[in-house]
């Protein structure tokens, strides 16, 4: 993805960054069918997505990721999809704030109580995504994920080593993979 952006391959970049050409490029967008909505609703969407990704590459801190996403004004591209793009193009600094990472954070917050995590995530999801209040809520939880995902990555690396699995060396990508696996373990397809 980084090389597509560097080489200014606008359409291949946007299609990957939105999970269209490969769901691995943006699991959140692919899972919810948002890639085609983003491209079909926004004028010059491919260029807008690439321009946003380039802004992510310049960051020294992920704290402004939600603000950059909001300021880009790309319809249907919210914190879940946008933060995933940020992590894919700048994984040393940026992390993913989607249902899977947020749920994992909430499990930790609620002392491993998955029912409480499920309920709180449901409340986040039911908020009006177009409202400023909802966006502020998602921005706040994005900020909280830095510590949570770093902790998840650190703890899981020890478990991986004990299981003779080579852990990922990019903290936020590794934490996203762990969060995704935990979410899938507790939410089998069709049940959550």
Helices and strands, in order, run as HHHHHHHHHHH
Distance between the ends: 30 Å
Number of strands: 0
**Can you give the mean pLDDT?**
92
* CA gyration radius, whole angstroms: 16 Å
Structural class: mainly alpha
Question: What is the total domain count?
Answer: 2
Number of helices: 11
Strand-residue proportion: under 5%
Main pleated-sheet profile: none
In short:
The protein has 192 residues and is an all-alpha fold. 67% of the residues lie in helices and 0% in strands.
Detailed description of the structure:
The protein is mainly alpha-helical and 192 residues long. It has 2 domains: 2-89, no CATH class; 99-186, no CATH class. It is 67% helix and 0% strand. It is built from 11 helices and no strands. α8 (99-109) crosses α9 (114-126), α8 (99-109) packs across α10 (132-162) and α8 crosses α11 (171-186). The longest helix has 31 residues, at 132-162. The two termini are 30 Å apart. The model has no long low-confidence stretch (mean pLDDT 92).
């Amino acid at each position: 993805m980084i090389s597509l952006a560097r080489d200014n391959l606008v359409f291949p970049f946007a299609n990957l960054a939105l999970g269209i050409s490969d769901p691995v490029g943006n699991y959140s967008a692919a899972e919810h069918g948002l890639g085609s909505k983003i491209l079909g609703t926004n004028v010059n969407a491919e260029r807008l997505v690439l321009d946003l990704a380039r802004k992510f590459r310049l960051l020294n801190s992920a704290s402004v990721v939600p603000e950059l996403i909001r300021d880009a004004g790309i319809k249907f591209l919210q914190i879940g999809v946008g933060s995933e793009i940020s992590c894919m193009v700048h994984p040393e600094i940026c992390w993913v704030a989607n249902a899977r990472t947020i749920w994992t954070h909430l499990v930790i917050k609620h002392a491993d109580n998955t029912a409480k995590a499920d309920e709180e995530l449901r409340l986040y999801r039911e908020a009006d995504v177009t409202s400023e209040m909802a966006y502020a809520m998602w921005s706040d939880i994005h900020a909280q994920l830095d510590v949570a995902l770093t902790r998840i990555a650190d703890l899981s690396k020890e478990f991986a080593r004990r299981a003779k699995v080579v852990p990922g060396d990019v903290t936020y990508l590794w934490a996203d993979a762990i969060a995704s696996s935990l979410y899938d373990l507790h939410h089998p397809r069709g049940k959550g």
